[in-house]
Design brief:
The protein is α+β, with helices and mostly antiparallel strands and about 500 residues long. The protein has one domain: Cytochrome P450 (Cytochrome p450, Orthogonal Bundle). Helices cover about 45% and strands about 10% of the residues. It is built from 19 helices and 14 strands. Helix 15 packs across helix 19. The longest helix is centred in the middle third of the chain and has 32 residues. The radius of gyration is 22 Å and the shape is globular. It starts with about 30 loop residues before the first helix and ends in a 14-residue tail after the last strand. The structure holds protoporphyrin IX containing FE (HEM). Protoporphyrin IX containing FE binds next to helix 15 and helix 19.
Length: about 500
């Protein structure tokens, strides 16, 4: 997540919701106000480094990692007109996410997310957030997710089947969209009782647009006041309408009694918003569906893409994985229970999320003055919690730019909890973490059982710091069938 464009528009950017409030911030820790002012955190002097947003935009990941390496776990800097502190030191991250979270709210840098997320679980705080999270939480209970294993493997089987043709012809394909569709399929079936792949042709362009629209790209059209009817503004409106339209169709299906009774949609329709004491409105329900859809499929699709990319680049990792898959599964479709017996697979996924954390940064605004690690954090300033820089910190990780799943073997346990946080932490930890991990492991296992993916050298890939850490420009892979000595048919014969 990154820098929104709200600072540059003059009309309200929140066209779906009613703008951000500081709801719930009244509980901001009073203790912090008494904590004294503390020192000024280290950082580039003069505050000019990030004064130029274009410089930030050009090489965001390298700059943030460099700041952390040069100045340490907390770095003070100016970004445009804002004072920000990048926080990557484990004890500082823990302070913001877990020890004093009420002082750190979504704030100004989250406002751009309202454009597509609306005011939902991701973009609200306090009582409003709690009410929304409570409705969806039961759908993420571990037992329930484990029971959803066959839905995941069925959806992966469809993907394997769709790759038969490119595997036969040897024609490289861009795997990113296919993996996004997979993530949509799983999410829709498990949470909405609807197969979102049916809507993918409409949704994928919206997602591509929204990933840029919600952050600063430095393009002039984003900086113009929003009431000027530019081509960009018309596009924005069109894509918002498409997304809202799909979510309305799903809600209407449920209102008409044709949806699943066991879905987040039905749960919202059957309950009231405890903050207003009234049934959830269409807009509120839509915001919740958009939130789960956008936060859930894009991150998981990115993580899957990066994991397959890393495996394709490391023959030794692929060999170890193949050995584990053959030993534990012997060619059959994995179950959720099998995952307990495949520790190497989990290490590969963990390492992928270290190296390429899909949510590479998430911001907060300080409600009151605070002190973090002896350093003063002024009220109203912004904290950038940056998993990417933390995960590439050479003080914590030996040779951080190398992909090495051995970092996550049991012998290396004992690392600080907040040295590695691809899913955030504290009460706002990702609600979909267990679902994402299940899905990624099952999908990687099934794909590697069936196919060998190799990168096309003429199409290099790099991480782009959009809302998520997107592999760009595309991930072209050649797909070839794995030589089968096992009951291969089974892998593609479900569904
Ligand atoms: C590899 C996949 C995923 C990654 C890396 C990821 C990462 C994160 C992170 C870092 C946060 C915390 C953001 C913050 O504190 O500001 C978050 C929050 C969230 N995630 Fe995920 N996520 C993933 C998958 C999912 C899935 C599958 C879903 C739902 C189906 C989901 C739904 C959400 C929601 C709704 C929130 C907001 C939670 C709240 O504020 O209470 N995520 N995610």
């Amino acid at each position: 997540m990154a820098i929104d464009n709200s600072a540059f528009g003059t009309a309200p950017e929140d066209r779906d919701g009613e703008g951000m409030t500081a709801a719930g911030t009244g509980r901001a820790a009073t203790a912090t106000a008494e904590a004294g002012r503390g020192r000024t955190a280290p950082g580039p002097t003069g505050g000019v480094l990030f004064g130029a947003l274009s410089e930030f935009k050009k090489d965001t990941l390298r700059l943030l990692t460099e700041m952390q390496r040069r100045y340490g776990g907390i770095v003070r800097m100016k970004m445009g007109p804002y004072l920000v502190h990048q926080v990557t030191g484990p004890e500082y991250v823990k302070h913001v996410l877990q020890n004093n979270p009420h002082n750190y709210v979504r704030g100004r840098f989250y406002r751009g997310f309202n454009l597509f997320f609306g005011r939902g679980m991701l973009t609200t705080d306090g009582a409003e957030w709690r009410a929304r999270r409570a409705v969806s939480q039961p759908f993420f209970h571990r037992q329930r997710l484990r029971a959803g294993g066959p839905v995941i493997t069925d959806t992966v089987s469809d993907l394997l089947r769709s790759w038969e043709e490119p595997a036969r012809t040897g024609q490289p394909i861009d795997i990113t969209d296919d993996l996004m569709r997979l993530a949509m399929g799983v999410l829709g079936r498990l949470l909405y009782g609807v197969d979102l792949r049916d809507y993918a042709d409409r949704l994928l362009p919206v997602v591509r647009f929204s990933l840029k629209a919600m952050i600063i790209t430095g393009e002039i059209e984003q900086m113009l006041p929003r009431w000027i009817p530019t081509r960009y503004q018309r596009q924005l409106r069109r894509y918002q309408n498409v997304l809202n339209g799909v979510m309305d169709e799903i809600i209407d299906l449920h209102r008409a009694g044709k949806g699943s009774p066991d879905s987040v949609v039905s749960a919202l329709l059957a309950s009231t918003n405890p903050v207003t004491g009234k049934p959830w409105t269409q807009r509120e329900i839509r915001a919740e569906l958009k939130t789960l859809f956008l936060a859930g499929h894009e991150t998981t699709g990115c993580a899957l893409t990066w994991t397959l990319y890393a495996i394709a680049q490391h023959a030794d990792v692929r060999r170890n994985l193949d050995e584990e898959l053959a030993r534990v599964l012997g060619g059959r479709v994995p179950t959720v229970a099998d995952l307990d017996n495949m520790p190497y697979l989990r290490q590969v996924v963990d390492e992928s999320l270290r190296m390429y954390p899909p949510i590479w940064l998430f911001p907060r605004d300080a409600v009151q003055d605070d002190v973090i690690g002896g350093y003063h954090i002024p009220a109203g300033s912004t904290i950038l919690v940056t998993p990417y820089a933390a995960h590439h910190n050479d003080a914590t990780w030996e040779n951080p730019e190398a992909f090495d799943p051995e970092r996550f073997c049991p012998a290396h346990k004992g690392r600080d909890r907040y040295a590695y946080f691809p899913f955030g932490g504290g009460a706002r930890k990702c609600i979909g973490m267990d679902l994402a991990l299940l899905e990624i492991q099952l999908a990687v296992a099934m794909i590697c059982q069936r196919y060998r993916l190799s990168l096309v050298a003429s199409h290099p890939v790099h991480p782009a710091a959009l809302v998520s850490l997107r592999p760009q420009p595309k991930v072209f892979m050649k797909i070839s069938p794995v030589e089968q000595t096992q009951p291969a048919e089974e892998l593609a014969s479900r569904s």
